[in-house]
């Protein structure tokens, strides 16, 4: 498979940190969601934007909705189209009782409480209020609705929040009839283990997070997991209680998977390794350079083993978290993502406020 960038349009540019995108097509319209806040960090809090874009004029906004939790920070929206409704899944940081007496959010994630929330629309314009789902500190990162699982059509992959001593470092699968009644189904990925005397938690594969779930076949689930050390890819057959994992040996942060007529594609943030300058004796230590991040599209070959690079999009600084949808024209793909490449300052990779949301049109083929 090959991919070529055809067009690139900025769709959010206001001096704020617009980030963490999701993209889908539903009932003949395109929808793009992202978070808006002063910075990348938890505080000050952020809210979510969902923009509806008509087919034939994807660059213009047909309708725009705002989703917010007072006093909370809404992050990482995930659009989930179904025949009857368009759902949105997100994480919301809220103040914890043991921190500042409930007086506000902390910039340290573990000093807050994370609740997974969801909303939905049946007309594309009016959204239901964000409603909590799952137990506290389980971040429901990705979900899908399967018509082949009559008893539990909704399946959701979540990861645990908190310090290594608070959690088991695992990813869990929740299932149910709807997003409001999900129940625990089993462990997807266990990234923690005990030491020789069982008193200390170790993380040989680093704590897993941000699982991206998809269904390559009616009886099969697949999942990409960010581990910081790299990216692992797992596969499970129904009833989805046992998983087989492969270390891809690639330093990628997965964000979305889509099936195209030419095969499966994966959107990622690439972490490009920089070789630190050689240290010389009797000279002050040279700090390592900041990481270089890029947004890219990879192919998932048959068997969903090791992804293959197809295209790196114009990007830089704090960037990534892309969404994907099939384009209006044959053999095209739409990709939403955020990037600071117009404002890039390598010394402030995670803190610079300016971040724009971009919409790329990509040609794909074999």
In short:
The chain is mainly beta.
What does this protein look like?
By secondary structure, this protein is mainly beta. The chain is 0% helix and 53% strand. The protein is built from no helices and 26 strands. The chain has a 4-stranded antiparallel β-sheet with strand order 1-26-25-24, with no helix packed on it. It has a 4-stranded antiparallel β-sheet with strand order 2-3-4-5, with no helix packed on it. The model is unreliable at 194-198 (pLDDT under 50).
Provide the fold topology.
Blueprint: E1 2-12, E2 17-26, E3 29-37, E4 47-54, E5 63-67, E6 73-81, E7 86-95, E8 112-121, E9 131-133, E10 138-145, E11 154-160, E12 170-176, E13 183-190, E14 193-194, E15 201-202, E16 209-217, E17 220-226, E18 231-237, E19 244-247, E20 252-260, E21 263-272, E22 292-300, E23 308-313, E24 320-326, E25 332-339, E26 356-365
Antiparallel strand pairs: 1-26, 2-3, 3-4, 4-5, 6-7, 7-8, 8-9, 10-11, 11-12, 12-13, 14-15, 16-17, 17-18, 18-19, 20-21, 21-22, 22-23, 24-25, 25-26
